[in-house]
Write the structure tokens for this entry.
Amino acid sequence: MLWAQIATPLFYAAPALGLCWLVSRLLDRLSWRAALLLILLPLCFTGRALLTGKVYGPINLAYTGEPFAERAPELGVTPAYAAVLHDLYSQIIPWQAAVRYAWSQGEWPLLNPFMLCGDVLAASAQPAPYYPPNLLALLLPLPMAPGYLATLSFFLTGLGLFLFARSVGCREEAAFLGAAAWAFSGAMVFWISWPLGATKVYLPWVFLAVRRVAKDPGPGSALLLTVVLTLAMLAGHPETVAHFVGLGLLYGVGEILARPRATWLPIAGWAVAGGTAALGLSAIFWLPFLDALLQTFQWLLRQSHTAHVSGAESLGDVLYRLLPNVVPFVHGFGRFSASGAPQHFLPLATGFAGAVALPLALYGLVRSRWPGRWGIAALGLLGAAAGAKVPGIFDLLGALPPFHLALNDRLVMVGGFAVAVLAALGLEAWLAANRPAGLGRWAAASAVALAGLVALLRPGLIERGLPPGFVLDQALLLLVPLALATLFLWVRPLRPAAVAALMALLLLERAAEMGRYYPAVPVAAFYPPMRPLTHPFPAERPARIVAQHFGFVPNQATHYRLEDARGYQAIHHLRFFQLLPLWSSSDWFTRVERLDSPFLSFLNVRHALVPRGQKPEGWKFTARGGSLWLWRNPNALERAFLPRRVRIGDPEQERLAGMQAAKDFAEVAWVEPPPGAPEVPGTSAAPREEENGRGTLAVERAGLRLRLRADLDSKAWVVISNTAWRGWRAREGGRELPLGIANHAFLGLELPAGHHEVELFFRPRSFDLGLGISALTLVLLGLAGLLVWWRESQTRRFPAPALRGRTRLAFGPYNPPGGPPQSVPQPAVPRELP
């Protein structure tokens, strides 16, 4: 681990330098100073973890519960922190561990065996196993991966904003300030380690690619759009990609209208070509995702649920959600409760990009000469309105497909993007003017207005539960940097010093406000061995584990390679979800309160972690721990078993009622034959109950697969307690066997009499199709690239009288906004080719 702690910063620097070189060659020249500053920029937030070999993430939240809490002092962990980050330690990082396990077994990361009785992995989208930075992170130990990925994400999104600002006429100093404002905006800092944040990284790149296609339609521009959309899709949050497409279309319309009408069709054609190629390249990701989504409770909920498309109920609600865009701490950054507030998401409903950036953005809107600033400002206002759920606007968004299925308040991110771009334009306008005027007054007015707003809000904030000391500290962090920036901006002759001061003040402000939002945790605290989790569980004989109450919170079992019947997931198999009342209580995860449910035995739950001193009835003591002891369930059924009787053809409600009343699932199982299965001669289509076949059955786990060996006296149904996601396949002797459904949500397999050796594996047809489409698209793009290269080489050898369009990626000469275009001498061209 020591080598990894030392090598991780170098492992970040190598691809960052490579990307800067590539960008400088293909898009826009980067000075070495700009490249160095952009590479160092993320360290303002991640440096204390990346450079000291610590875990950049809220692993300490695991130490608020058992069995970890008792070891917190020993490992130097402070358990309590921003609770809204709990998804990271209980979802995102365990998913990364499951992906690593799948790759280590030589399997595609399609199945997560460690939660919810076998859950989809890649098809649940957010594990993002094909995302290139995630693939790079596989070369590092898992504790180093969160800090590495966050650092790379900050760099990528800062570089994207920098390039976009350069493309609209900003010099490097102004573009860098905009990059810092966007990279450290509230929406980016909070979400940086989520798949949603990894996708947001590409928002400025989408605008850059759209502008490139509009300015220079051709293969190179379309390729840039393809790469950007593909990376955004593979990053793991399709909902955000849908938002990107909508934003790109709106911005693209504005860019097209600014071009000659004769270019509209080529621009649209190359944009469609780029988007289509991106869909083809990412088919391996989105086809299995759509296939899985159609099987989920969330799909049903989003189609019938209306809360996410309804507008705010009152002006007060709208103002309540708008305030964080200018005063970011009004909801306590998630550390403190606020009565009447939806505590989980309000701290992140913000487009705040730093108080120092606000007067620059206003100045840029007024003084900049780039016409597109008004479109960017309009999109920023649209994002703020969506985040505040403004009636009318929010309702309209919710009525437009595919946004009718999305959480559109997350569009608030565009507010921070707009502020960052306008701030870069504002600084550029100030630097470009011979006699700059007004920016100091803008900053002073902004400081006075913010101070008045904070003073007005302070009594209400304290009344809602925010500590007075916290309000004072955050108010100073908001106002003092802006006041100092005002002093520098007021002294016009010292513009170089003022620019450096503005950058430093912005970075200091954001680092002080949110720099410690993510803790840096010692590597030794990353799920160390502890009793009773070190008990020797049989590796080959599959069995599941649960914990009572809030013990051993899912999905921590993934780090110990234990299969937990519980889980915390963003999407749930619909049929599995319908069975949760049989064995668990409703909470933010599937919580188990009692261990006497016969359904737990059916789920192959052989072990349970129970608070010390409690004795679950019917269970056998196995091993001591600290706060949790391990007990064994002697009645647990094997992962695959032969029920004594089967019921076939029961309607859903009768089936669910029968399972609710069942006392022993080894006695009877409810089965649904696979579609197209032939009817048994002499039977009717009416529901019936029959004796199941007898025989011997053994099951073992081989990585992500199950192997069954059966010797049956007669035809029998085998019940397998793995969730019946579409994509499970059974194979015997090279021949696939049809799978049915058992006990409403699990696998059922009918076998004839005799000896059988069956392999069960998870590989959806949608994955095979997506893999084929992605591979074919990659080949076609390679061939197209070779064709373009060949044509360009021929053009260089035999120059044509005129070129209709460029195909390279370079942007061309830098033209200051409003300045005269640079003329490039053209060589004399003969009228006819020799």
Q: What stands out?
A: The longest helix spans residues 765-797.
